[in-house]
Amino acid sequence: MLVINEFDFYSQYQEESDYYGRSINETGGRNFAAGIRVFDISTPARPREIGFMPVDGKGVHRIWWDGGRYAYASIMPWGFTDHIFGVIDLINPERPVEVGRWWVPGMWTAGGETPTWTNRWALHHPVVANNIAYCGWRDGGLILLDVSDPTKPTLVSHLNWSPPFGGGTHSGLPLPDRGLCIVPDEAIADNIEDGLKHTWVVDVSVPTNPVTISTLPTPADRDFVAKGGHFGPHNVHENRIGSFQSSNLIFSTYQNAGVRVFDISNQFQPAEVAHFVPPAPTQWNDYRPNRPRVVHSVDVYVAQDGLMYVTEGAGGGLTILQYDGI
Questions:
Q1: pTM higher than the cut 0.90
Q2: Which residues are CB-neighbours of 35 under 8 A, at least 6 positions away?
């Protein structure tokens, strides 16, 4: 099991806009661990740390790993404006090592580069299929990288719809058998102050020329904007190894609108087929001031038997559901 260590940005930024709104790489002098920890979980009740790869910088945000030799992560080294793409070699899990990097030209300020953007261009995380990394680059949109040589990632294509849309691209879920990629734009502000966000269906059958063809329906069963907090996509179930896998059903978290299930059998007309909105939390662990006491569903993992594990942000806990439509 791989575990990220990253600087707790909320301890530095009291307002979410300070973190999401611009590229920044500072810590205010606070102590923190930065890197990737490796655990042996062959005995699940007694996980044992066996390795650690330090990152000379702010840390690691997310990791894509399917159990093979290489893991792919968003890392934030010093000298860069924000998170970049990193490849980690796990041939010896006790001594993981970074072997490849890629970033958008302009991010390496320590190397004399200058950003051409004023919003936040940063890798949230990649999902890798058939030697292509599908990367959500926040306000930089969707980036496809060729990782057939893990030590030398290269650009395949770059598609950005921000502006005119609000940005915050979180990730890309490839569906290789259909030549599609599902791309959620993360809602990052309360009361849709960052604009109404969408989850895009992108045709990537020609990887060098990705094209948006539709969006998943926006939940409309109640006034979620008036509910408070974040209304809009966060992430989707990523068809990880050993989990439920489908190229027709998309399980998506929608923050204050809970978890949603979409049927994309017709990729040009996606339809919502199920949803669940958890109740308000009974316990609250969010130390940020003046936050609305609203559950935000942020990540969902679907097991092969249809059990759905939904993490609730800001101290909301874990919701476990059963999807019977499989």
A1: yes
A2: 5, 52, 53, 54, 55, 59, 60
